[in-house]
Structure formats: structure tokens, C-alpha cells
């Protein structure tokens, strides 16, 4: 394999990690020495003005009298304040990075069932066995899609997190992501790896259409971004996290994120119990019974990603009912890429780099790009 050309290939494929782009832009401006020296505790203080912008969540009263489908919980829906406070919810000392999740705006969603965990390898395998489905990462990329890549580089594969040998400047995410030939959902770390013993781990290396195909087969669908956030907030109002406002209540982590020096080899201390990805259900569920709604793996949601969607909803001055996302995707950082929203953050989220395990914040991914920190969960209408 020619590593050099792979970088070009990776650049095209890697847009999933472009959650990092906005960060990069800010660091370039703020590279003045004093940045990011704050401790986690300082970064995550509850801002004094945050509550004022959130109005109380009003849950629907209706509850189905039949049992929820297996592995799903009922989310009542209702009216809530969605999004984040841009000034205060940021990548630590770097303000404004989460501005795509501002302003806070009022939304109503109908009730629905939601998977209590991210879709696991075991569940995904059932789908593949039943349908013969082949994921995008398992399909040979074509010249049409990657005109710049040479023929020998057009091989199946996916993007895998790879710790750096030593400390690096965090302004270039290609330092810790590699395009791994032969990586796919069955081989999460490359062709030699397997999912044996990882039946209960969330499936990864799935792109939007893979997630959608699974959902359809299961008689479900992907949540809208509003449904996702309503569910993640667990009926609470304006919290920073899915479980409250304290990152570590009683000193205990509530989600699988990243502690230690990012992204260096052996840097992940696993203080939260896990280095790297974790099986599902290792932390307490949120108030609606949802596990790992923060951290572990990002979750594809239905909506197109548009940087100013929340702004447009807020400007309408109305309570938006069952929003389905914008009509078109738009990310000024890379306008040519077709993106949908990711939510929840992953096992790689750290206050040194990306704090999007915070419940009101957003991620995004190119719709045909897979990686080992992105999965999904489904919903089902009543
Ligand atoms: Ca961890
Ligand atoms: Cu993150």
C-alpha cells in the first residue's frame, strides 16, 4: 500500500472527523500560549445565565398501555428548549465552537419508542444474515467517487483512530486517524481484528445509508435530531449533560469518554472504566432509560447538517413541531460535502479537544464516511 496516496484518499474520506475543522479554525486564531490550560472542572462549571434561556420541559401525558417493543423505551415527547448556550458551552477555553447548536429554541415532538442502547454488533449481524446486506465500508470505492485516488488505492476499508507516538498539535486530525484497508464493522481495527466477544459492543464503521437500511429492516427509523435531543435530556430542563450539570457526580463518570493526554499512545487512562470503545450498558441510563446516550460512539440522526438551522428555527419565533431538519445540507467549512448530523459524542471526546458529549451540542458527518467511533440507534413511532 502506498501510504502517501492514502492520505489523499483519507482526506476525502475523513470528513467525518471534520467536527475538528471548526476547532482548527479557532486554535489558529487563539494560538497565543495561554489556551486550554483550564482544568476539566473549570471548563464544566454551570454558567450562571444558562437557565434563563431554557424554559421548562413539558412532557406529554400520554403513555401507551401496551408494552414497549423489546429493547426500546417510551419517550413521551412534548415541548422543550433545544440547543446550547454558545458563550458558555464551548471547547473549554475556546469559545464559540458549538455555535451551530445555538441559539436555544423551542421545539415540540410527538412521543415515540427509542432503542435503549446503540445498535450492537450482535443486532447488526442478525440484519446482515437476514438480508445479505453489504455495508459501504465493505464495498470497493469507485473512481467516480474518488477521482484523485489511484486504482490500487481503491480498496475497501474505513477510518480508524490511531494514537500518535508523542504529543501533537491538535490542529490536524489526520495525525490520529488512518484509513485502514479491510476495516469494517466485522473488523473494527483492521482485517486482523474481529468482533468475537464484542457482541454487545455498538456496531461501528457504518455510514448513514447502512444505519437507515438496518432501521428499515427492523421496522424502525432513525431519530430526528429533535427526537434525539428530547430523549437525551430525559425530561430535564437545560442541563449540560444527559444526567445533570456535574460531569462527575460523586466523582463518578457517567459516560465513556476520554481521560488523559489526547491523542497519544497510552494516553487514554480509562479513568471512566474504559480505554477505547466500551460494551453497551456500562453506565447508568438517563431518566428515560437510555444507555450511552452520551459518549461511546456518535449516533447518526436523520437530519441534514446545516450550520444555521437552529438560528432559522429561533428566528421563526414559533414552537417548531416535529422538525425534520433543514431542506439542504450546509457546512461552510466544507461546502461540497453532503453531511447529516451526529449526536452524543464518543469515547474520544475530551475537554482537551471536543466536548460534544454535552447534551445540547452537535456533530456532523459526511454521509458515506465510516469510522470506528460512529454508530446509531433507532426509534419507532407509536
Ligand atoms: Ca473512556
Ligand atoms: Cu468529541
Automatic annotation (TrEMBL):
GO terms, molecular function: formylglycine-generating oxidase activity
Sulfatase-modifying factor enzyme-like domain residues: 70-380
Entry-linked InterPro entries: CTDL_fold, Sulfatase_Mod_Factor_Kinase, SUMF_dom, SUMF_sf
Pfam families: FGE-sulfatase
The protein's name: Formylglycine-generating enzyme family protein
UniProt organism field: Flavobacterium potami
